[in-house]
Amino acid sequence: MRRRTLLTAAAATPTALTAAACTTGTGTHKPPPPSTTPSASASASAPADWNALAHSLQGKLVRPDDADYATARQLYNTRYDDQKPDAVAYVAHEADVQECLAYARAHRTPISVRSGGHDYAGWSSGTGRLVIDVSRLSGVAADGTIGAGARLIDVYTDLAESGRAIPGGSCPTVAVSGLTLGGGHGVTARAYGLTCDNLTSVSLVTADGRKLTASAKQNPDLFWALRGAGNGNFGVVTGFTFRTHPSPQGVTAFLTWPWRQAQGLIEAWQEWGPAQADEIWSAAHLASAAGGGNPTINIAAFSIGSYGDFQNALDRLADRAGAPAASVSLHRTGFQDAMLLYAGCSTFSQAQCHMPGKTPGRNPQGVLQRETYAAKSDFYTKALPPAGVHQLLTGSEEFTRIAAADGGGGGTIVLTALGGAVNRIAPDATAFVHRTSRVLAQYIASWQAGTPGATQQSWLTRTHGAMRPYASGAAYQNYPDPALADWRTAYYGSAAPRLAQLKKQYDPTRLFDFPQAL
Asked: Residue 406 pLDDT > 80, yes or no?
């Protein structure tokens, strides 16, 4: 099963709703690639002594000769399987983080900080690095205290036992840290705000080894920065406290239209989706067809309001599109069941809804697999004109031809409606500045592991480039794109200068450094 997008092209049944992407709302701490030379506070480095570091940790230090190394070095995306860190430290607490940072400073060792390992650019690992992995910090408490390494499947399931929930993404193996620190959107974002909007405090260890709490009252400048620009820039985040919400009842919807209706449907949806009541979330999904033929187009939607109001809203979408849906599936559901559905885990146990393995963050009973993909993003502040919609559809049609001629792969475009609670926060209130956008677009190319994927990546570059004239120029920082020229402005807009000053304050020697570090 391809898990890159919210929906599959399967029949319009509840089981056709699969994970948003392990690409929606993700992001992890982003350390330097192999070419980056880290700074250190010491003028000269001491000889490395990995055994000494291992003995100083309560958690486990995995080295290349260890049995767990083959799994420990992996990221979610198989594109980065050539990366070979010198060691992976599965830290057990903040003192372990302090030991790792002290070691890095003393030995001038490049560090990579990893939570779920879903970083699009592969910057949560790297050859010749010490990877600080926070997966063991995975506790989930009913009061909203959550460890940085907790996987989303465990966050939703464990909170549901107390009848509580937080808004977040749909990929079950993403860690809450990467999701939150770059923003974090999901099916209740329009009702409750982004994941970062529901933060009340953050615990972290800074480059100099200090343990800090960031909140509205403690280190408020850092708290501002961590809500949107926290991935890999200011320290190793170890835990969060969230404002939780009563776990809502909801209604899931999945609607499909024939491809010949795609132009009218997208023109209608882009006006309809961001304008709905806060309780209604939706995403339009365009996907290439396997083996040729027309691409597929569908709408996924979720509401925490009444069944009747939701049904009426969907009827208005069909009326505006000028054609009824070819198939419609609406189902009442609890929030936890809905998240399992979107995660592609409705038929799995909690243990199965992990990647397999014995290292922290995995589960021996896990059945989920890694993927091979690349992605780019855009924010749209206004509706696409007909020519822009046509260009979008052309991209999907082109990938279908590529897949038929070049051995497969998948090309997907996902448009997610924003607005609601997301946009009622001022752009400068947090480091997530994209508060005037109506739609977030993600373009995804996937291909078979072990193959170059050059044709698929070329399609991605062309499609993204063709849509840029219609987009705002901004990009989602949780979808880091190494090819972005002016990434500071794209990710952080007017917040970039203030963030740069805070970087100098909290990490003056740039211990946390990578190509798109502040």
From this structure: no
**CATH class belonging to 145-246:** alpha beta
CA distance 518 to 514: 9
State the CB neighbour count (10 A cutoff) for residue 416: 27
pLDDT value of position 226: 98
d(CA 63, CA 68): 8
How many C-beta atoms surround the C-beta of residue 337 within 10 A?
17
Domain with CATH 3.30.465.10 in the chain: 145-246
Rounded Cα distance, 69 and 243, in Å:
37
Task: Look at residue 42 and tell me whether its pLDDT is greater than 50.
Answer: no
Q: pLDDT (tens digit, 9 = 90+) per residue, 432-461?
A: 999 999 999 999 999 999 888 999 999 999
Structural tokens at position 11: 């029949």
Of 269, 327, 332, 279, nearest to 303 by C-alpha is 279
Task: Give me 52's structure tokens.
Answer: 């000494």
> Rg of the chain over CA atoms, in angstroms?
22
Average pLDDT of the chain is 90
Does 14-19+248-487 carry CATH code 3.40.462.20?
yes
User: Are the C-beta atoms of 351 and 426 separated by less than 8 Å?
Assistant: no
How many whole angstroms separate alpha carbon 186 and alpha carbon 248?
14
